[in-house]
Amino acid sequence: xxxxxxxxxxxxxxxxxxxxxxxxxxxxxxxxxxxxxxxxxxxxxxxxxxxxxxxxxxxxxxxxxxxxxxxxxxxxxxxxxxxxxxxxxxxxxxxxxxxxxxxxxxxxxxxxxxxxxxxxxxxxxxxxxxxxxxxxxxxxxxxxxxxxxxxxxxxxxxxxxxxxxxxxxxxxxxxxxxxxxxxxxxxxxxxxxxxxxxxxxxxxxxxxxxxxxxx
Length: 215
Fold this sequence. Notes:
- The protein has 215 residues and is α/β, with parallel strands linked by helices.
- It has 7 helices and 11 strands.
- A hairpin with a 2-residue loop joins strand 8 (135-137) and strand 9.
- The protein is elongated.
């Protein structure tokens, strides 16, 4: 997890073969926060967060709580009191395919949370559900123990068995981008650096008559 946290979401997504990215509707409630850790999952009935509390009880320091529902829900499944308990237990953040509330308090706490919506709609605590089973969250299947990385660009999930290869690919991609950054800063064109002119030619794209490369 420490190695993964060194990379941003976009880099990991690309290194993973452009896989693992959640629906961009799953958004951070505050700017400037990130999270990275193994997933503990909570599957709840719509409008009921009993299994969120059950999941909190089994989370360990460093975990990310991933919350989903059996049917679409806009209820505020997590608020300030849940976040307070989560922080005390060392949970690094929560990702919800549902709603979050008490946003002012969560922002003041600096608690990392990504959610589909913000909603004051309350929840019951009376329906059974599941903890640490595969869940659908943000259009992805998240399995307990998967690596979850969230930041400005969204949320990416990497299967535990794929983490080693993704870390190697992310490191290689980062090194390559640093080289490109230096060349672009030096004034080179991405059209030439990446041989994009030959692609345009192959696709039959032509400059209009009278075009000049001089500004």
